[in-house]
Design a protein that fits this description.
Number of strands: 7
Distance between the termini: 36 Å
CATH architecture: 3-Layer(aba) Sandwich
Helix content: 40-55%
CATH class: Alpha Beta
Shape: globular
Number of domains: 1
Structural class: alpha/beta
């Protein structure tokens, strides 16, 4: 049954490609919700229940959470009223199984989509993530070279000691990239053959606001076709 409409903007790219940053910037120009599966999973981990502990173990070891769990969380979120005019999916789908479920969900809603693949060299991704530091108190994120705190090792906002997330350690990052290469990159071929639009955008060549502006323009144009029709 068709219950919604609008358009879904789906951001694809390897871990560290900037999907979260782009989603937050794009949300401001499109005025639709940003749905991050990573945020939903972290919220569940912070809840401290048995499921959250399972998720934490998988993520800390660089493994992927099961499709069934992620599908259920996304389906519940996009069913909320604020998604009626569209939404941004960040970090989903990551597998062909998730993609098939998502397409069925969007078809039921009468929702179209635009898939944007952020292309970033893997060496750049490792540099980005290995230098990232997070505040366990307020959630602020820094980078040792591109966005360092005013006082080394301390959060500018609340003064807590910064830490490196387990899934940002180089050994885990490499494992996450291997998992992406094996299980997620086939999505690019899948979506390029679907009726929805598919675009590839350089995720490292310009400042994040310029990249976001380019993606917003593509989303608003609603132009059909595959990657050749709308690549930057």
């Amino acid at each position: 049954m068709r219950e919604g409409g609008g358009r879904a903007l789906i951001l694809l790219g390897p871990p560290g490609s900037g999907k979260g940053t782009q989603a937050r910037l794009i949300r401001e120009c499109l005025k639709v919700p940003h749905i991050s599966t990573g945020d939903m999973l972290r919220d569940r981990m912070q809840a401290g229940d048995s499921l959250g502990m399972i998720i934490k173990r998988l993520i800390d070891e660089g493994e992927l959470v099961t499709d069934e769990l992620v599908n259920r969380m996304v389906q519940e979120r996009i069913s909320k009223p604020d998604c009626g005019k569209g939404f941004i999916l960040d970090g989903y789908p990551r597998t062909l199984s998730q993609a098939g479920m998502m397409c069925r969900q969007l078809a039921d809603r009468g929702t179209g989509w635009l898939v944007v693949h952020l292309k970033v060299d893997y060496n750049e991704i490792i540099r980005r993530l290995a230098g990232r530091r997070s505040c366990p108190g307020c959630g602020a994120v820094y980078h040792l070279t591109s966005h360092p705190p005013a006082v080394a090792g301390l959060c500018d906002r609340c003064g807590n000691s910064l830490s490196i997330r387990d899934d940002d350690r180089e050994s885990v990052v490499r494992k996450r990239l291997e998992a992406y290469e094996e299980r997620t990159r086939p999505l690019l071929e899948f979506f390029s053959e679907e009726e929805g639009s598919f675009c590839e955008v350089d995720g490292a060549g310009d400042a994040p606001p310029l990249i976001a502006e380019r993606i917003c323009s593509l989303a608003r144009s609603g132009r059909p076709g595959g990657a050749a029709a709308c690549s930057n």
